[in-house]
């Protein structure tokens, strides 16, 4: 691999990692607190992407599209939790089947509304175009660097909330032992609804941010659900540092293998997951169940 | 004038899936501590879970100062004045001592002398020394203090404790009993679930013995301690061995 190629592949890996992190963080927060594996997470990503595109198209503002995606998918998540999942809480098989069912219905509804076309976003001028990176001496799309910066800021914000605020204390306590959180007088159903809304909103926002890296079209839901699953399984369900480290690991492995042996690249990230599961079933940063 | 008892349990049944664990419990508790004794597997922990709302399949009646608790979610039951110190302590390993105290919602009490983190640290100076330490790294005795502190901060009228002496060294158990006596004098009602006769009788004069999901016998500490045959029959241990 030549130097510019190596730098480009590494940057591709890191920026893809950033995107995986933004998508997976909501997934892992929902799992950590509610113990629900939300298999409709990819649908929320795709819904956010389409919706953000439509709003941006009408208003001419990408930022407005991103905000709309965040808010409307958060609301959709709230409806999903309060309307369906709350009734079957703790019944894992039913939760899996209901969220798969929702994702199938949602995929068809979105196909009916937005069709099979590919939609391209136009993010604001300041974060588009190319950038000559000093020192490394390679050109790189400015937008992908924005995604990287955004993921880092998001990670820091989530870390700060978890480490320093009372909500963060409640969330960490709930990841440890939900029943004891209820026993000290905290309404865990309200906490669950809030976490589901936050996780869903982040998925929807990721739809706009990720859709702007390439484009958005039907089928992206399954792709990002799978990516989220691999990332949180490797990192350890419910762990913020685990999600960050695993996103970098999975994305770098994916990009390097695409560059080095493209034919077998698809199986390498699964191989990584299999190896982690064999050696550390709880994931890199997960606690044993 | 007859006042309403603090806790009235009537015909309480509880289920784990198909198994019928509590089979009609009747208990009345005033301000005086009550200890529920029984061997392993008699339903003692299930009783605690049923009273705190953490077990959904429950029927019967549980009234706290007149309020029906059956059917209420656990956080409502906590708000009505039931504090819970669970078996195995179940502190939050990823939170520090201080964060445990910040977690609990602050609620005023009618009398105004609410528990605050400052009062907790005065009661348990050990916790003040360890306030920045992750709770998972505390010793068993310190974790037990923290579990009690967490329950006290909800300003309970009734404290339900499930085997608090389990896994603690004798000197720590003595300290624990002294603390609980101090709380009883302060007006807190305690329902103590225990396997160890010596711990139960050290705190409570009233003793209820649980066998197979029912209260088999209500007696007093003095009578139980004076009757080894009774101890043998219901607990299968002698007082010496239990101590």
| Residue share in helix of chain A | over 70%
Distance between the termini of chain A: 42 Å
Task: Give the distance, in angstroms, between the N- and C-terminal Cα atoms of chain B.
Answer: 41 Å
What is the rounded Rg of chain A?
A: 19 Å
Oligomer: heterodimer
How many domains would you count in the coordinates of chain B? 1
User: H/E element string of chain B?
Assistant: EEEHEEHEHHHHEHEHEEHHH
Q: Kindly provide the radius of gyration of chain B, computed on alpha-carbon positions and rounded to a whole number of angstroms.
A: 17 Å
* Strand numbers in spatial order across the main sheet of chain B: 6-7-8-3-9-10
N-to-C SSE series of chain A? HHHHEEHHHHHHH
For the largest sheet of chain A, list the strands in their spatial order.
Answer: 1-2
What CATH architecture of chain B would you give? 3-Layer(aba) Sandwich
Number of helices of chain A: 11
Average of per-residue pLDDT values of chain B: 92
Low-confidence runs of chain B: 238-243
How many beta-strand segments of chain B? Answer: 10
Counting DSSP H or I runs of 4 or more residues, the number of helices of chain B is 11
Structure, described:
The complex is a heterodimer of chains A (289) and B (243). Chain A is mostly helical. Chain A contains eleven helices and two strands, in the order ααααββααααααα. Chain A has one domain (3-225). In chain A, helix 1 packs antiparallel against helix 10 (240-260) and helix 2 (41-59) crosses helix 8. Chain A is globular. Chain A starts with a helix and ends in a 10-residue tail after the last helix. By secondary structure, chain B is of the alpha/beta class. Chain B has one domain (7-242): Rossmann fold. Chain B has eleven helices and ten strands. In chain B, the strands form two sheets. In chain B, strands 6-7-8-3-9-10 form a six-stranded mixed beta sheet, with helices on both faces. A four-stranded antiparallel beta sheet of chain B has the order 2-1-4-5, covered by helices on one side. In chain B, strand 4 and strand 5 (67-68) form a beta hairpin. The radius of gyration of chain B is 17 Å and the shape is globular. The chains are: A mainly alpha (289), B alpha/beta (243). The interface between A and B is medium-sized, with 19 and 25 residues.
